[in-house]
UniProtKB/TrEMBL annotation:
GO biological process: phosphorelay signal transduction system; regulation of DNA-templated transcription
Cited SMART domains: HTH_LUXR, REC
Residue ranges annotated for the Response regulatory domain, each copy included: 3-119
Sequence positions bearing 4-aspartylphosphate: 54
Protein name: Response regulator transcription factor
Species, as recorded: Tahibacter soli
Pfam families reported in the protein's UniProt record: GerE, Response_reg
Length: 200
């Protein structure tokens, strides 16, 4: 039996995925989570065989959840199911140890098959995304990404500095570096481009 934890912030999608997986005789959905922080708590207490997670969730993103599972050496595999066909996301997912990356518009039976394959030790990656993922490198480092994400959410340099325990000057330097690397005119354009590419 494959023990699955499902993390998805949209209740309807979470319910539909859970119902579909429960139809499979060899898959047991042992828990569901509505955000990344709840998923992390459930991973630690239940240690599922496979975590199926969306990318964009409150608390922790699916990528941050995967990273945390890897850093803590928890013996479960991570499969991302998302609407975002962004090569940058796939690159970061693979770097975080994700072994499956599927798009939500894939046929439902593909998910169950993917879970069986990763449970056996394989990988399942959307083939077109895999090709696109290596065509353009992410120029941002982790700090630039954090600062740019918060700036794009409307936080001021002072608020970002406080949240990340940095000086305002350091925050401005990171923003300036990100803007320069992305070849745009300001932080809003930088945020938009980085999100479009899947680098945030």
């Amino acid at each position: 039996m494959i023990r699955v934890l499902l993390a998805e912030d949209q209740a309807m999608v979470r319910g539909a995925l859970s119902a579909l997986l429960k139809l499979e005789s060899d898959i047991d959905v042992i828990a569901t989570a509505a955000d990344g922080a709840e998923a992390w708590r459930l991973v630690q207490s239940n240690v599922p065989d496979v975590v199926v997670t969306d990318i964009e969730m409150p608390g922790l993103t699916g990528l941050e959840l995967a990273q945390r599972i890897r850093e803590h050496e928890i013996a479960c595999k991570v499969v991302i199911v998302t609407t975002f066909a962004r090569p940058g996301y796939l690159r970061r997912a693979l770097e975080a140890g994700v072994v499956g990356y599927l798009l939500k518009d894939a046929p439902a039976e593909q998910l169950a098959e993917a879970l069986r394959k990763v449970h056996r030790g394989g990988r399942v990656i959307d083939p077109q995304l895999a090709v696109d993922a290596w065509s353009e490198a992410d120029p941002l480092n982790d700090r630039e990404r954090q600062v740019l994400r918060l700036a794009g959410e409307g936080q001021s340099a002072g608020e970002i500095a406080q949240a990340l325990h940095l000086s305002q000057g350091t925050v401005r330097n990171y923003l300036s570096e990100a803007i320069g690397k992305l070849g745009v005119g300001n932080r809003i354009e930088a945020y938009r481009l980085a999100r479009q590419k899947g680098w945030l």
